[in-house]
Design goal:
By secondary structure, this protein is mostly beta strands. The protein is built from 1 helix and 9 strands. It has a single domain, classed as Porin, CATH 2.40.160. About 5% of the residues lie in helices and about 55% in strands.
Length: about 140
């Protein structure tokens, strides 16, 4: 089963979005993102660092799942510089559910997503965290 973990930081801002009630602002430009995913207790987190050009400064969680018709974003709320949402991804092995939060200070972002899936009576917990910072103008 494909898990929406690697997109946690890059895709959340990769595409331009229209401004909406449930979005937060970031400063457009070149961004560096660091994400960490922990899938099993006692194992080191998987770390990913990427850079991306953000042309539009609105962050909207619906963009997280572009190209993935199986997952749904719900219960989206924004409050100033904080955005929260829930995610559900049904699959043949079970349903993956998660809660996420993203905070923006304009030139930096941080957030987390905690996901859970039960397969054959076993619960799998996936904890993600991410940080991003604007590092300059787009090339």
């Amino acid at each position: 089963m494909r898990y929406p973990i690697s997109w946690a930081m890059v895709l959340m801002m990769a595409a331009a979005t229209s401004a909406g009630a449930d979005s937060i602002k970031v400063e457009p430009g070149k961004w560096e993102f660091r994400s960490e995913a922990t899938m099993m207790p006692g194992q080191p987190p998987k770390t990913n660092v990427t850079t991306e050009c953000i042309e539009d400064g609105d962050v909207d969680p619906d963009k997280f799942m572009e190209g993935d018709e199986t997952c749904r974003i719900s219960d989206v709320t924004s409050s100033g510089s904080e955005l929260k949402w829930k995610m559900t991804c049904p699959g043949p092995q079970g349903t993956l559910t998660g809660d996420a939060v993203l905070r923006s200070k304009g030139t930096t972002v941080s957030g987390s997503m905690n996901m859970r899936m039960e397969v054959g009576g076993q619960v799998m917990q996936i904890n993600n965290s991410w940080q991003g910072r604007r590092i300059g103008a787009c090339d």
